[in-house]
TrEMBL record, chain A:
It comes from Bradyrhizobium lablabi. The keyword Acetylation does not apply. It is found in: Cell inner membrane; Cell membrane. GO terms for biological process: transmembrane transport. Its main location: membrane. Residues 71-293 form the ABC transmembrane type-1 domain. This is sn-glycerol-3-phosphate transport system permease protein UgpE. The complex is composed of two ATP-binding proteins (UgpC), two transmembrane proteins (UgpA and UgpE) and a solute-binding protein (UgpB). Belongs to the binding-protein-dependent transport system permease family. PROSITE patterns: ABC_TM1. SUPFAM superfamilies: MetI-like (SSF161098). The lineage of its organism: Bacteria, Pseudomonadati, Pseudomonadota, Alphaproteobacteria, Hyphomicrobiales.
From TrEMBL, chain B:
Part of the ABC transporter complex UgpBAEC involved in sn-glycerol-3-phosphate (G3P) import. Binds G3P. It comes from Bradyrhizobium lablabi. This is sn-glycerol-3-phosphate-binding periplasmic protein UgpB. One of its GO terms (cellular component) is periplasmic space. The complex is composed of two ATP-binding proteins (UgpC), two transmembrane proteins (UgpA and UgpE) and a solute-binding protein (UgpB). Keywords: Periplasm, Signal, Transport.
């Protein structure tokens, strides 16, 4: 803080409180609905004050949605998506901003294009791709008439040998969701702001590009990585359609799938009390992640100013 | 696997699958769209089956709502990993029937030697799910809309019960509003196109499309812009404008406006029984849907809900399991249990008779309304059901047009003309795609 | 060398014109990535040279101080990303988009090639044109609201000392909610019959009814979509503000600039890259990722008033199973979005100040 400005600070607090309220009003009503009995939750209008069934409903939601198991799946998937996406994106953003090569812009735009067809729109062919990720290899084999050769070598049919099924596996859940450019674009933006002097100095010292990446660029990026990790974890946590359509094994269901099964649909008892307490439960792990990761926000900045 | 293969397989990152060890029980999957309490009941049903014998295990997998289940099956089928059974909503009938991906249920049961009393299925149920007189899917959760009302409201307004005709009902609802008994006479159901337009047409013997509503061929065209449907839409619009009818909108179930005692009547599926019996704190009653005063006698209503389809591409042992399960589903005992547990209608006359015999309807008189309404009179060409391709798509186009009436952007006639025009384009698309597939004279043989 | 490559299509502006082509060619001569770090780099163009207009003539999106041009290492670095993209994005996407020239049943057992019938049907469709207009309104309004609120909240967070991480956590919460639940909550709060916030509006004399008033419905989905996305903008802006050197701000303060003035004169320009990133991402978000909220809040109604393009793609493909039309719409939507993004890069990426 450079100087004292009590009026402005008060206004800032007011703005933040307003923002927090804006966030909390919908959540408050989720809490109210989650604390009523099923008969109360059907009243019109909904009461403004919570009832006394919150714990009961939480327990019911926890048991019905098997959150013990589904939370675990969701954490694996969300961490996998966040870690995987950050790792591949750091590398590709580094390549795109720090190297001059022929297809640099083409590479960037190809990666960028992956933002423009959400998985929900290409879900059937993506399913096919993951049900058998070796499909392109099979086509290639077919095209090159490798089948007969393979049969001669191995005595097996090539289409069977070249099958790589990822249905009901974690990689199958995670990999298609890593395929998008958000993180690459963010790191590109960030790397472009990194002072050129750092790279020049590293080169003068004879540091290799990877060394520069590892010991200079990466520490500088910590705040952005953390911010992105939070965003990606929440993104992964909230994935619904892909895990739903893709998993056929109950043991692979994620928390949001279980939550959606709590939400009443037509012809059904409108058990919004259970659904809403379930919704609040599913927010817990993401909230913890936000709280924990925030601590590292300042780390990269402090390291770099050493 | 020899060493060479193993090496190359490892090179490609191939996961090779050994043939699964012969399991004691044959396991088959059933993907379904039931959530919440209905999902619990469905799981109970499956557990009953699994416990009833020791050869087969059915695994019920909840795959989201009907749209999500459908897409899941399509994706899995295209990837050559379909489940054995899937629950599909009534509107998907033609898509499934002509998909080339299914095994007709009756064919399967005949082949596996199960004697199912097919003619015993209640007529609108049987005619909806059968093709050329043979059942293509096993009826599972069948419902039909009935008329729910708040007894206290009617009493306070000086009426014994709701009137049988729309005209008299309108007078009653306006009286209820005028006397300040309740804030709104009725609430618009979320699936109003099903209850207030389609079932309305069947009950009032109005044609919805040509060629017996599509039963006689893919060349069918919508004609509801020339029937009483137009005045029905105009009626709903008038009620909305006068505050007699309320739209619940998103984020809130229309049913709650009725069960909370805010609105006096509600047209909704008989499957609401499960919830209303348990949770509604109002003094409620239910009766038949109203009909127009110049239509006498009113005809049967039609069904909604879902059926179990069997998919192609599995081994004979698995089809043994499927057939055993479907036989279990068709048993009168199972039907009666499901009827009582959920509020869906029993699909066969035997099951209905059994429920009656046991005095079930003495305690639950309103639960009989759906069956009585479904089997009322002799079905005409207009009340056998609806057999339109891409029926979801035509319905959504229609819903948009009706909404345009509600928002005041279009006059009812104009909107229905546009809906029919859009619907017919969609039907032609389906006809073009399925050209040459024989659907002529379907249902006439029976 | 650039003339024949797609680079020209995307970034025709600066590089190829200003760069002597002979120099470019010699730069590509050394094979492999061997040049790196030997100090044998030829003088990098742009280091000293500038064009007559005074703009540094470097390639857009490339560091001035870079590791040169060995194709080996960058290819290796890009490989993981590309393998994943090829298998799980490009191949499935191409197969999805190929549907746009087909008439097919959803199970794929009955497929007819229909040339451009699906596209023709779209252009002849008034509903589709209405959807384009709605999408533009929706995306622009959502982008402006999200970014503006995000900037204000980030600025305020940067000022306050107490309870900073509490604010940050609370403001990030909407991102922790499944979109469908967020949509249900918003639809409920503003439900004209039972919603508490709708009742407040009614008490203020506003005849709020998203079920029967198309513009109310559009505002509702804009608000709901923004609410869900403000936190995304907020977190990156907040992190960006942390990185603004205190020395610069202090120097400005000594010169007598107040906090707000300093924010606009120093901090915000330094956040340029982040703001540009967010503007593009908000645009992508509005265009492609909002259908779950639309589905929960309005179902695209009433009478198609909130039926934005991506929701239509989703409904036609996923609900109506009209794969051909849905794919054709995807092709059009992607092309449109790609053009818009290219324009954004073309006009704004150069204006963004990446130097510190």
């Amino acid at each position: 803080m450079v100087e004292r400005a009590p009026v402005l600070d008060t206004i800032c607090h007011a703005i933040l409180i307003a923002g927090a309220l804006l966030v909390c009003v919908p959540l408050y009503f989720a809490f109210v609905a989650g604390s009523l009995t099923i008969a109360e939750v059907q009243k019109v209008p909904l009461p403004w004050l919570p009832g006394d069934q919150f714990v009961v409903n939480l327990q019911a939601a926890w048991v019905k949605a098997e959150f013990g198991r589904t939370f675990l799946n969701s954490i694996v998937v969300a961490v996998g998506i966040a870690a995987g996406k950050i790792a591949v994106s750091l590398l590709s953003a580094f390549a795109i901003t720090y190297f001059r090569f022929r297809y640099r812009m083409l590479a960037f735009w190809l990666i960028f294009m992956s933002l423009m067809l959400p998985i929900e729109v290409r879900i059937v062919p993506t399913f096919e791709a993951v049900a058998n990720a070796a499909l392109p290899l099979q086509w290639l084999a077919e095209m090159l008439h490798l089948g007969d050769l393979w049969k001669w070598i191995s005595g097996h049919d090539i289409a069977i040998a070249l099958e790589w099924n990822m249905v009901n596996t974690y990689p199958g859940l995670i990999l298609p969701l890593i395929a998008s450019a958000t993180a690459t674009f963010l790191f590109r933006q960030f790397f472009l702001t990194v002072p050129d002097e750092l790279c020049e100095a590293a080169r003068l010292d004879g540091a290799s590009p990877l060394r520069f990446f590892w010991s200079i660029l990466l520490p500088l990026s910590v705040s952005n990585i953390i911010a992105l990790a939070i965003i990606l974890f929440l993104f992964g946590w909230n994935q619904y359609l892909w895990p739903l359509l893709f998993t056929t094994d109950k043991d692979m269901a994620t928390a949001v799938i279980a939550l959606k099964n709590l939400i009443p649909r037509s012809d059904n008892e409108p058990a919004w009390n259970i659904a809403m307490s379930g919704a609040l439960l599913t927010m817990l792990p993401p909230t913890l992640v936000i709280l924990l990761l925030q601590r590292w926000f300042l780390k990269g900045l402090i390291d770099s100013s050493k | 696997m020899n060493r060479k293969t193993a090496f190359i397989a490892a090179l490609f990152g191939v996961l090779a699958f050994a043939a699964p060890a012969q399991a004691a029980r044959v396991e088959v999957q059933w993907w379904h769209a039931m959530s919440g309490v209905l999902g619990d009941r469905l799981n109970e049903l499956v557990e009953k089956f699994n416990a009833s014998q020791d050869k087969y295990t059915v695994v019920a997998v909840a795959k989201g709502n009907y749209d999500e289940v459908t897409n899941g099956v399509i994706a899995a089928y295209r990837a050559k990993r379909p489940p054995e059974m899937v629950q599909i909503a009534e509107r998907g009938y033609m898509t499934m029937l002509l998909s080339g991906a299914i095994v007709p249920v009756q064919e399967l049961m005949d082949q596996k030697g199960y004697k199912i009393d097919w003619p015993d299925f209640i007529k609108p149920v049987a005619s909806f799910w059968s093709y050329k007189g043979r059942m293509s899917a096993m009826p599972f959760n069948s419902s039909t809309p009935i008329f729910w009302y708040n007894k206290e409201h009617f009493r306070k307004a000086g009426f014994d019960k709701p009137a049988d005709t729309w005209q008299e009902l309108e007078a009653q609802l306006y009286a209820i509003k005028a006397k300040g008994v309740s804030e709104c006479g009725s609430v618009l159901p979320g699936d109003f196109y099903w209850s207030l337009l389609e079932n309305y047409s069947a009950i009032n013997n109005q044609p919805y499309g040509t060629l017996a509503n599509g039963f006689d061929g893919l060349g069918t065209e919508f004609v509801y812009n020339k029937t009483k449907v137009v005045s029905q839409v105009a009626r709903l619009k008038k009620w909305l404008d006068d505050g007699v009818l309320q739209i619940a909108g998103q984020g809130f179930s229309p049913e709650q406006l009725f069960t909370s005692g805010r609105c006096s009547t509600f047209v909704n599926s008989t499957a609401s029984h499960g919830n209303i019996e348990r949770n509604a704190k109002i003094e409620w009653g239910a009766t038949f849907l109203p009909h127009e005063n110049d239509v006498n006698p009113p005809l049967n209503s039609t069904i909604g809900g879902g059926a179990i389809w069997v998919l192609k591409g599995h081994t004979p042992e698995r089809y043994d399991a499927v057939a055993a399960f479907l036989d279990f589903v068709a048993q009168p005992e199972t039907q009666v249990w499901w009827h009582g547990a959920t509020g869906y209608v029993p699909a066969t006359n035997k099951a209905y008779g059994l429920a009656r015999e046991r005095g079930y309807y003495k305690d639950h008189p309103t639960r009989e309304i759906a069956v009585l309404q479904l089997s009322r009179g002799t079905p005409s060409e207009n009340s056998r059901g609806f057999r339109f391709g891409n029926f979801v798509q035509t319905m959504l186009a229609q819903r948009t047009e009706v909404e345009a009436v509600f928002t005041g952007q279009k006059q009812p006639q104009q909107a229905m003309d546009d809906a029919v025009k859009r619907g017919n384009e969609i039907l032609r698309q389906f006809e073009k795609l399925n050209a040459g597939k024989d659907t002529e004279a379907d249902g006439k043989s029976k | 060398m650039n003339a024949g490559s797609p680079i020209v299509l995307s970034e025709a502006s600066a590089a190829p014109v200003a760069q002597p082509s002979g120099l470019t060619r010699t730069q590509h001569a050394p094979p492999g990535g061997a040049v790196v770090g030997r100090g044998a780099m030829p003088p990098r163009p742009g280091r000293a040279q500038t064009t007559k207009r005074g703009r540094p003539d470097r390639e857009p999106g490339l560091k001035r101080a870079n590791f040169g041009h060995g194709p080996g290492l960058p290819t290796l670095l890009l490989l993981p990303q590309f393998l994943i993209l090829v298998f799980f994005f490009f191949i499935p996407s191409l197969r999805a988009l190929m549907q746009s020239v087909l008439l097919s049943d959803p199970f794929g057992n009955n497929v007819q090639f229909v040339w451009f019938d699906n596209f023709k049907a779209l252009f002849a469709n008034g509903e589709y044109r209405q959807s384009i207009v709605t999408t533009l309104w929706f995306t622009v309004a959502q982008n402006v609201i999200t970014l503006a609120v995000g900037v204000v909240l980030a600025f305020a967070t940067d000022r306050v000392v107490r309870a900073r991480s509490v604010y940050r956590t609370v403001i990030l919460l909407p991102y922790a909610i499944a979109p469908a639940i967020a949509g249900i909550l918003w639809a409920f709060l503003f439900n004209p019959v039972v919603g508490p916030l709708a009742h407040m509006l009614h008490a203020l004399g506003i005849g709020w009814d998203p079920n029967r008033n198309p513009s109310d419905a559009l505002w509702l989905v804009i608000m709901a979509a923004s609410w869900k996305h403000i936190c995304y903008n907020y977190i990156f802006l907040a992190v960006g503000l942390l990185a603004v050197p205190a020395s610069l701000m202090e120097a400005a303060a000594v010169d007598g600039a107040g906090p707000i003035r300093r924010f606009f004169l120093i901090a915000l320009p330094m956040l340029g890259p982040t703001v540009f990133f967010l503007a593009v991402m908000n645009f992508i978000y509005g265009f492609f990722e909002t259908f779950a909220i639309i589905d929960a809040v309005t179902h695209g109604g009433p009478a198609g008033a909130t039926n934005i393009l991506v929701y239509k793609v989703y409904v036609d493909g996923f609900v109506n199973l009209d794969l051909g039309s849905s794919a054709a719409q995807s092709v059009l939507l992607m092309s449109f979005a790609l053009i818009c993004t290219l324009l954004q890069f073309r006009y704004f990426d150069h204006k963004v100040n990446y130097g510190v």
